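Thread: quick sanity check before group meeting

JM: Hey all, I'm pulling together slides for Thursday and realized we never actually wrote out the predicted structure for the chain we discussed last week. Dropping the sequence here so it's in one place. If anyone has concerns about the input, flag it before I start.
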Amino acid sequence: MLIQLLSYVMIILGIVMIIENMTNDDYRKAKGISKTGLDLIAKSPAHFKGFVSEHSKAFDIGRAFHDIILTPEAYKTDYEILPQGFNGQLKASKERLQDIRSQGITPLSFDDAMAVSAMRDSAMKLPNIAKLLENGKAEVSHFWQDEETGVDCKCRPDFTVNPDLLPWCIDLKSSVSAAANEFAKSVANYRYMVQDAFYSEGVYKTAGYWPQKFIFLVVEKKPPYVAAWYELDDRAKEYGRELWQRDLETYKRSKESNEWHGYSTDIQRISLPEWAYKS
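JM (edit): ok, ran it. Output follows.
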Protein backbone atom coordinates (compact mmCIF):
# COMPACT_ATOMS: atom_id res chain seq x y z
CA MET A 1 0.00 0.00 0.00
CA LEU A 2 2.82 2.39 0.84
CA ILE A 3 4.54 1.69 -2.48
CA GLN A 4 1.28 2.32 -4.36
CA LEU A 5 0.78 5.63 -2.54
CA LEU A 6 4.38 6.61 -3.16
CA SER A 7 4.07 5.92 -6.88
CA TYR A 8 0.88 7.99 -7.01
CA VAL A 9 2.48 10.98 -5.28
CA MET A 10 5.70 10.83 -7.25
CA ILE A 11 3.90 10.72 -10.60
CA ILE A 12 1.63 13.62 -9.60
CA LEU A 13 4.79 15.62 -8.93
CA GLY A 14 6.08 14.70 -12.38
CA ILE A 15 9.00 12.73 -10.96
CA VAL A 16 10.12 9.60 -12.77
CA MET A 17 10.66 6.56 -10.60
CA ILE A 18 12.36 3.16 -10.66
CA ILE A 19 11.33 0.57 -8.06
CA GLU A 20 13.15 -2.70 -7.50
CA ASN A 21 11.64 -5.75 -5.77
CA MET A 22 8.08 -4.54 -6.29
CA THR A 23 5.57 -7.38 -6.22
CA ASN A 24 3.53 -8.16 -9.32
CA ASP A 25 0.38 -7.35 -7.41
CA ASP A 26 1.66 -3.94 -6.28
CA TYR A 27 2.82 -3.16 -9.82
CA ARG A 28 -0.59 -3.98 -11.31
CA LYS A 29 -2.31 -1.75 -8.75
CA ALA A 30 0.14 1.15 -9.10
CA LYS A 31 -0.85 4.27 -11.03
CA GLY A 32 -0.05 4.36 -14.76
CA ILE A 33 -1.08 2.69 -18.00
CA SER A 34 0.88 -0.39 -19.03
CA LYS A 35 1.38 -2.16 -22.33
CA THR A 36 -1.52 -4.44 -21.42
CA GLY A 37 -3.70 -1.36 -21.02
CA LEU A 38 -2.53 -0.03 -24.39
CA ASP A 39 -3.47 -3.34 -26.02
CA LEU A 40 -6.98 -3.05 -24.59
CA ILE A 41 -7.30 0.58 -25.70
CA ALA A 42 -6.24 -0.51 -29.20
CA LYS A 43 -9.29 -2.80 -29.32
CA SER A 44 -11.53 -0.05 -27.99
CA PRO A 45 -11.79 2.16 -24.89
CA ALA A 46 -14.73 -0.02 -23.83
CA HIS A 47 -12.45 -3.06 -23.71
CA PHE A 48 -10.07 -1.14 -21.45
CA LYS A 49 -12.80 0.11 -19.13
CA GLY A 50 -14.54 -3.24 -18.86
CA PHE A 51 -11.48 -5.43 -18.53
CA VAL A 52 -11.60 -8.12 -15.85
CA SER A 53 -8.46 -10.16 -15.22
CA GLU A 54 -9.00 -13.91 -15.41
CA HIS A 55 -6.73 -16.49 -13.83
CA SER A 56 -5.68 -19.43 -15.99
CA LYS A 57 -3.40 -22.46 -15.95
CA ALA A 58 -1.54 -21.01 -18.95
CA PHE A 59 -0.79 -17.88 -16.91
CA ASP A 60 0.64 -19.97 -14.06
CA ILE A 61 2.90 -21.89 -16.44
CA GLY A 62 4.05 -18.72 -18.18
CA ARG A 63 4.77 -17.06 -14.84
CA ALA A 64 6.66 -20.14 -13.64
CA PHE A 65 8.75 -20.10 -16.83
CA HIS A 66 9.72 -16.49 -16.13
CA ASP A 67 10.45 -17.10 -12.47
CA ILE A 68 12.57 -20.22 -12.87
CA ILE A 69 14.92 -18.22 -15.12
CA LEU A 70 14.76 -14.71 -13.69
CA THR A 71 14.18 -15.35 -9.96
CA PRO A 72 15.16 -18.99 -9.35
CA GLU A 73 15.26 -18.64 -5.56
CA ALA A 74 11.72 -17.24 -5.51
CA TYR A 75 10.62 -20.08 -7.81
CA LYS A 76 11.61 -22.58 -5.10
CA THR A 77 9.33 -20.96 -2.53
CA ASP A 78 6.49 -19.56 -4.67
CA TYR A 79 5.52 -22.83 -6.36
CA GLU A 80 4.69 -26.31 -5.13
CA ILE A 81 5.19 -29.21 -7.50
CA LEU A 82 2.40 -31.73 -7.10
CA PRO A 83 3.11 -35.48 -7.04
CA GLN A 84 3.10 -37.34 -10.32
CA GLY A 85 -0.40 -38.64 -11.03
CA PHE A 86 -2.04 -36.10 -8.69
CA ASN A 87 -5.83 -36.16 -9.27
CA GLY A 88 -7.18 -32.66 -8.78
CA GLN A 89 -10.80 -33.84 -9.05
CA LEU A 90 -10.82 -35.68 -5.74
CA LYS A 91 -12.28 -33.87 -2.74
CA ALA A 92 -9.11 -34.21 -0.69
CA SER A 93 -7.04 -32.97 -3.63
CA LYS A 94 -9.25 -29.91 -4.10
CA GLU A 95 -8.86 -29.09 -0.42
CA ARG A 96 -5.09 -29.43 -0.71
CA LEU A 97 -5.01 -27.13 -3.74
CA GLN A 98 -7.10 -24.59 -1.90
CA ASP A 99 -4.74 -24.76 1.09
CA ILE A 100 -1.69 -24.27 -1.16
CA ARG A 101 -3.20 -21.24 -2.88
CA SER A 102 -4.31 -19.74 0.46
CA GLN A 103 -0.62 -19.51 1.39
CA GLY A 104 0.12 -17.50 -1.75
CA ILE A 105 1.81 -20.48 -3.38
CA THR A 106 1.08 -21.60 -6.95
CA PRO A 107 0.60 -25.35 -7.45
CA LEU A 108 2.14 -26.88 -10.57
CA SER A 109 1.41 -30.34 -11.87
CA PHE A 110 4.39 -32.66 -12.12
CA ASP A 111 4.26 -32.62 -15.93
CA ASP A 112 3.99 -28.83 -16.10
CA ALA A 113 6.92 -28.42 -13.72
CA MET A 114 9.04 -30.78 -15.82
CA ALA A 115 8.12 -28.80 -18.95
CA VAL A 116 9.05 -25.50 -17.27
CA SER A 117 12.41 -26.95 -16.22
CA ALA A 118 13.07 -28.22 -19.74
CA MET A 119 12.20 -24.81 -21.19
CA ARG A 120 14.65 -23.21 -18.76
CA ASP A 121 17.39 -25.65 -19.72
CA SER A 122 16.84 -24.95 -23.41
CA ALA A 123 16.92 -21.18 -22.92
CA MET A 124 20.14 -21.36 -20.94
CA LYS A 125 21.91 -23.08 -23.84
CA LEU A 126 21.79 -19.89 -25.91
CA PRO A 127 25.26 -18.30 -26.26
CA ASN A 128 26.25 -16.02 -23.35
CA ILE A 129 22.73 -15.95 -21.86
CA ALA A 130 23.96 -17.17 -18.46
CA LYS A 131 26.51 -14.36 -18.29
CA LEU A 132 23.92 -11.76 -19.27
CA LEU A 133 21.46 -12.95 -16.62
CA GLU A 134 24.19 -12.74 -13.98
CA ASN A 135 24.76 -9.06 -14.78
CA GLY A 136 21.55 -7.13 -14.43
CA LYS A 137 18.20 -6.93 -12.69
CA ALA A 138 14.93 -8.77 -13.15
CA GLU A 139 11.49 -7.16 -13.24
CA VAL A 140 12.36 -3.62 -12.25
CA SER A 141 9.30 -1.33 -12.36
CA HIS A 142 9.55 1.99 -14.22
CA PHE A 143 7.10 4.90 -13.84
CA TRP A 144 7.04 8.11 -15.85
CA GLN A 145 4.71 10.70 -17.35
CA ASP A 146 4.44 11.01 -21.13
CA GLU A 147 5.39 14.54 -22.14
CA GLU A 148 3.04 14.79 -25.13
CA THR A 149 -0.16 13.60 -23.45
CA GLY A 150 0.56 13.96 -19.73
CA VAL A 151 -0.56 10.35 -19.29
CA ASP A 152 1.05 8.38 -16.45
CA CYS A 153 2.87 5.32 -17.81
CA LYS A 154 4.57 2.26 -16.41
CA CYS A 155 6.50 -0.74 -17.64
CA ARG A 156 8.28 -3.73 -16.12
CA PRO A 157 10.95 -5.30 -18.37
CA ASP A 158 11.62 -8.96 -17.67
CA PHE A 159 15.36 -8.37 -17.43
CA THR A 160 17.59 -5.33 -17.81
CA VAL A 161 21.25 -6.06 -18.40
CA ASN A 162 23.71 -3.83 -16.55
CA PRO A 163 24.06 -0.90 -18.99
CA ASP A 164 27.78 -0.67 -18.22
CA LEU A 165 28.11 -4.17 -19.71
CA LEU A 166 25.46 -4.07 -22.43
CA PRO A 167 22.46 -1.72 -22.53
CA TRP A 168 20.02 -4.51 -23.39
CA CYS A 169 16.53 -5.48 -22.30
CA ILE A 170 15.56 -9.15 -22.49
CA ASP A 171 11.97 -10.34 -22.62
CA LEU A 172 11.00 -14.00 -22.21
CA LYS A 173 8.29 -15.50 -24.37
CA SER A 174 6.88 -19.02 -24.47
CA SER A 175 5.41 -19.91 -27.84
CA VAL A 176 4.01 -22.74 -29.90
CA SER A 177 6.84 -22.11 -32.36
CA ALA A 178 10.13 -20.26 -31.95
CA ALA A 179 10.81 -20.30 -35.70
CA ALA A 180 11.56 -16.83 -37.06
CA ASN A 181 8.63 -16.67 -39.49
CA GLU A 182 6.16 -17.94 -36.90
CA PHE A 183 7.37 -15.66 -34.13
CA ALA A 184 7.11 -12.70 -36.51
CA LYS A 185 3.39 -13.50 -36.72
CA SER A 186 3.20 -13.56 -32.92
CA VAL A 187 4.91 -10.16 -32.81
CA ALA A 188 2.16 -8.77 -35.03
CA ASN A 189 -0.72 -10.58 -33.30
CA TYR A 190 0.34 -9.73 -29.75
CA ARG A 191 1.83 -6.32 -30.59
CA TYR A 192 5.28 -7.10 -29.27
CA MET A 193 6.59 -4.20 -31.39
CA VAL A 194 4.58 -1.93 -29.07
CA GLN A 195 6.18 -3.59 -26.06
CA ASP A 196 9.66 -3.04 -27.53
CA ALA A 197 9.05 0.65 -28.25
CA PHE A 198 7.06 1.44 -25.08
CA TYR A 199 9.47 -0.32 -22.70
CA SER A 200 12.46 1.29 -24.40
CA GLU A 201 10.80 4.67 -23.91
CA GLY A 202 10.23 3.87 -20.24
CA VAL A 203 13.84 2.87 -19.64
CA TYR A 204 15.04 6.02 -21.40
CA LYS A 205 12.74 8.32 -19.43
CA THR A 206 13.55 6.79 -16.05
CA ALA A 207 17.11 5.42 -16.31
CA GLY A 208 18.48 7.92 -18.80
CA TYR A 209 19.69 5.58 -21.54
CA TRP A 210 18.14 4.03 -24.63
CA PRO A 211 18.35 0.21 -24.78
CA GLN A 212 20.75 -0.71 -27.55
CA LYS A 213 18.85 -3.94 -28.09
CA PHE A 214 15.45 -5.25 -27.00
CA ILE A 215 15.78 -9.02 -27.19
CA PHE A 216 12.90 -11.49 -27.31
CA LEU A 217 14.04 -14.84 -25.93
CA VAL A 218 11.53 -17.38 -27.24
CA VAL A 219 11.15 -20.98 -26.08
CA GLU A 220 8.71 -23.50 -27.47
CA LYS A 221 6.16 -24.93 -25.05
CA LYS A 222 6.48 -28.56 -26.15
CA PRO A 223 9.36 -30.98 -26.72
CA PRO A 224 12.07 -30.51 -27.79
CA TYR A 225 11.53 -27.00 -26.30
CA VAL A 226 13.68 -25.28 -28.93
CA ALA A 227 14.87 -21.77 -28.02
CA ALA A 228 15.85 -18.78 -30.14
CA TRP A 229 16.22 -15.07 -29.64
CA TYR A 230 15.31 -12.15 -31.85
CA GLU A 231 15.38 -8.39 -32.13
CA LEU A 232 13.02 -6.31 -34.27
CA ASP A 233 14.18 -4.24 -37.21
CA ASP A 234 13.96 -0.45 -37.19
CA ARG A 235 10.73 -0.37 -39.20
CA ALA A 236 8.93 -2.59 -36.68
CA LYS A 237 10.26 -0.53 -33.78
CA GLU A 238 9.09 2.74 -35.32
CA TYR A 239 5.67 1.24 -36.04
CA GLY A 240 5.47 0.15 -32.41
CA ARG A 241 6.21 3.70 -31.33
CA GLU A 242 3.50 5.10 -33.61
CA LEU A 243 0.99 2.66 -32.14
CA TRP A 244 1.68 3.38 -28.48
CA GLN A 245 1.55 7.12 -29.11
CA ARG A 246 -1.78 6.70 -30.91
CA ASP A 247 -3.14 4.53 -28.08
CA LEU A 248 -2.07 7.05 -25.43
CA GLU A 249 -3.93 9.80 -27.29
CA THR A 250 -7.04 7.62 -27.44
CA TYR A 251 -6.76 6.88 -23.72
CA LYS A 252 -6.30 10.55 -22.90
CA ARG A 253 -9.39 11.59 -24.89
CA SER A 254 -11.50 8.84 -23.34
CA LYS A 255 -10.40 9.70 -19.82
CA GLU A 256 -10.98 13.45 -20.27
CA SER A 257 -14.42 12.99 -21.81
CA ASN A 258 -15.32 9.96 -19.67
CA GLU A 259 -16.62 8.33 -22.87
CA TRP A 260 -15.41 4.78 -23.27
CA HIS A 261 -16.84 3.83 -26.66
CA GLY A 262 -16.70 0.42 -28.28
CA TYR A 263 -16.81 -0.22 -32.02
CA SER A 264 -18.52 2.07 -34.50
CA THR A 265 -22.28 2.36 -34.02
CA ASP A 266 -22.79 2.97 -37.76
CA ILE A 267 -23.99 0.17 -40.02
CA GLN A 268 -20.89 -0.91 -41.88
CA ARG A 269 -20.51 -2.95 -45.05
CA ILE A 270 -17.88 -5.65 -44.76
CA SER A 271 -16.20 -7.99 -47.23
CA LEU A 272 -14.93 -11.50 -46.79
CA PRO A 273 -11.16 -11.83 -46.45
CA GLU A 274 -9.49 -12.99 -49.65
CA TRP A 275 -8.60 -16.41 -48.25
CA ALA A 276 -12.31 -17.18 -47.76
CA TYR A 277 -12.84 -17.24 -51.54
CA LYS A 278 -10.24 -19.94 -52.10
CA SER A 279 -11.61 -23.46 -52.32
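AS: nice. The first strand starts at residue 17 and ends at 19. Residues 76 and 215 are 26 Å apart (CA to CA).
JM: adding both to the slides.
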